[in-house]
Design a protein that fits this description.
Oligomer: single chain
Number of domains: 1
Radius of gyration: 20 Å
Mean pLDDT: 82
Shape: globular
Largest sheet: 12 strands, antiparallel, barrel
Order of helices and strands: HEEEEEEEEEEEEEEE
CATH class: Mainly Beta
């Protein structure tokens, strides 16, 4: 879910562990690793299909009342006409060829640049275009405001900051700082899980495009199957319009997750984009492992 930055790609594994492991001893502290590979294709507002893929490495420290996450992406894509905004590939050039109020003459053929935005002309890559690079890192810190009996209900708040490390001329980022604030709510039973999240984003603007600060959200329903090691989830997620003349993001996911022996899990997600600001389809595979833990002291 874009509201939750790039973390939506690893949410399914998190919920799988949380749902299946209800009966395990409660942990006072833990460190988790999530490794996620996402492959996507889409035409967006462009004339040709853009292929994107990334490896997302996430490290999460959590305690009873707060957590901190660091996300480090490595990105591949075959066009600089699509940028990673809020951790997801999206176009920043509309059908009329501009990127909002500041959209002509972009970075070396990036969004708003290239052919000068003439509809129907082929996109032009920067002469030094590289299709593989490091994306912007994210830091997310949150606090748990409420936790119900057996951790079956929870309400939390979080803040996120994105540092402009990636090369924006290649489409791997925007070259600006981004900030987000939001809250999440979840409820689970032995067989069912509901997750809801909303967030507001303040996006830094590169010189060639004007962003609108979006509101983003996600709703997920999950159910443990007859074999309790498996979890099936359906998700709808999106955010409001970010660039003028480009629809807001909206997509649906279907995920199958499996808990492995010990504190490990894997999952597969199939995603369909419903608007032009998200890929037409995506396939996501992920792995999660608990690399360190400290159990609560017992009397």
């Amino acid at each position: 879910m874009e509201c939750n930055v790039q973390r939506r790609h690893v949410l399914q594994a998190s919920l799988l562990v949380a749902t299946i492991a209800v009966s395990t001893p409660a942990l006072a502290q833990s460190v988790l690793y999530d490794g996620t590979i996402r492959y996507s294709q889409g035409k967006y507002t462009l004339d040709e299909t853009v292929t994107s893929a990334f490896l997302l490495n996430e490290f999460t420290y959590s305690s009873e009342h707060w957590f901190a996450e660091v996300l480090l992406p490595v990105i591949y894509q075959d066009s600089a006409e699509v940028r990673y905004v809020g951790g997801m590939p999206m176009p920043t050039r509309g059908h009329n060829g501009d990127g909002g109020d500041g959209g002509d003459g972009g970075h070396h053929g990036g969004p708003g640049g290239g052919t000068g935005g003439t509809p129907g002309e082929p996109d032009i890559q920067p002469q030094d275009f590289s299709d593989l690079g490091v994306g912007d890192p994210y830091l997310r810190v949150g606090a748990l405001l409420y936790r119900g009996v057996f951790d079956r209900n929870s309400l939390g708040v979080f803040g996120t900051v994105k540092a402009p490390v990636a090369d924006e001329t290649q489409g791997f980022g925007t070259g600006e700082w981004d900030f987000g604030l939001g809250m999440s709510w979840s409820r689970s039973t032995e067989k069912n899980l509901i997750f809801l999240e909303l967030a507001y984003w303040s996006l830094g603007e590169p010189p060639d495009v004007t962003f609108k600060n979006p509101i983003a959200g996600e709703f997920t329903y999950g159910r443990v199957l007859s074999n309790p090691r498996y979890l099936l989830e359906a998700t709808i997620w999106g955010r409001t319009e970010t660039v003028a003349d480009i629809d807001g993001s909206l997509a649906v996911d279907l995920t199958l997750g499996r808990s492995l022996n010990g504190p490990h899990s894997v999952y597969l997600t199939m995603e369909a984009g419903l608007t032009e600001s998200v890929p037409d389809f995506a396939v996501i595979v992920g792995y999660r492992a608990r690399v360190w833990e400290k159990k609560k002291a017992t009397d």
